[in-house]
Design goal:
Keywords: Kinase, Serine/threonine-protein kinase, Transferase. By secondary structure, this protein is of the alpha+beta class. It contains six helices and ten strands, in the order H-E-E-E-E-E-H-E-E-E-H-H-E-E-H-H. It has two domains: 98 residues, 2-Layer Sandwich (Phosphorylase Kinase, domain 1); 111 residues, Transferase(Phosphotransferase), domain 1 (Orthogonal Bundle), CATH 1.10.510. The protein is 40% helix and 21% strand. Strands 3-4-5-7-6 form a five-stranded antiparallel beta sheet, sandwiched between helices. A three-stranded antiparallel beta sheet has the order 8-9-10. Strands 1-2 form a two-stranded antiparallel sheet.
Length: 216
């Protein structure tokens, strides 16, 4: 499918048939999708993500709030260009991005489902983050919910905060947990770990980071 035709589908079939509701600025966007041809595949703090069955290799990220963040994400993707660890920016409109779809499962869900995470995934992400720094970006807010793996390789699916300044410890902390806990104790015989345990760890980590920030 040509990009022009894909954009027409976005403008005529997707945008008029979705609502992106933001009841609380600190909670993810709520998506109401009444389109018959577009499928909702995700939602985050600023946007919903959609795919069309006729072109499964692309996704559309539609912003529901903070349009200035859309402009910043466009610039991030332009700087990244083509790199195997990241998606590619194909096109964009007033409130949406068209991106190459990255297949895979998040590291967060892999742990819950008992799917082993090989070290190659960690090294791929490190290589991608080094590349982002080399083009003047600052990898920020990289964690187990926006990193995916597919056939033993690692990919970063959300770069929307790479324009921010300062140090974010999330990926470094995740790596420490991987090498000190996951690799020696879980990798070989990876059990399923209930969601409430992993989510509890995630929430506990957020509290830990807030307390650490206050002390510093």
């Amino acid at each position: 499918m040509s990009t022009d035709h894909y954009i027409k589908l976005i403008e005529n079939e997707l945008l008029p048939n979705i609502q992106l509701i933001s009841p609380n600025p600190f909670d993810p966007i709520f998506v109401r999708n009444q389109s018959k041809s577009w499928i909702t595949i995700g939602n985050g703090n600023y946007a919903g993500v959609f795919s069309h069955g006729s072109d499964p290799g692309r996704v559309v990220k539609v912003y529901g709030r903070s349009p200035e963040e859309l402009k910043k994400e466009i610039e991030v993707y332009k700087r990244l260009g083509n790199h195997e660890t990241f998606s590619n920016l194909i096109a964009y409109g007033e409130n949406y991005l068209v991106l190459k779809k990255l297949e895979g499962i998040t590291l967060f869900n892999a742990i819950i489902k008992g799917i082993p995470i090989p070290e190659t995934v960690i090294k791929d992400i490190d290589r991608g983050l080094d590349y982002a720094r080399s083009v003047g970006l600052n990898p920020y807010d990289v964690h187990g919910k926006n990193v995916v793996m597919y056939e033993g390789r690692g990919y970063i699916v959300d770069v929307s905060d790479f324009y921010k300044v300062g140090y974010c410890s999330k990926w470094d902390d995740l790596k420490k947990a991987y090498y000190k806990i996951y690799q020696p104790f879980l990798l070989k015989h990876h059990p399923r770990i209930p969601f409430f345990i992993i989510d509890g760890v995630r929430k506990g980590y957020r509290v830990y980071r807030k307390l650490k920030k206050r002390r510093s």
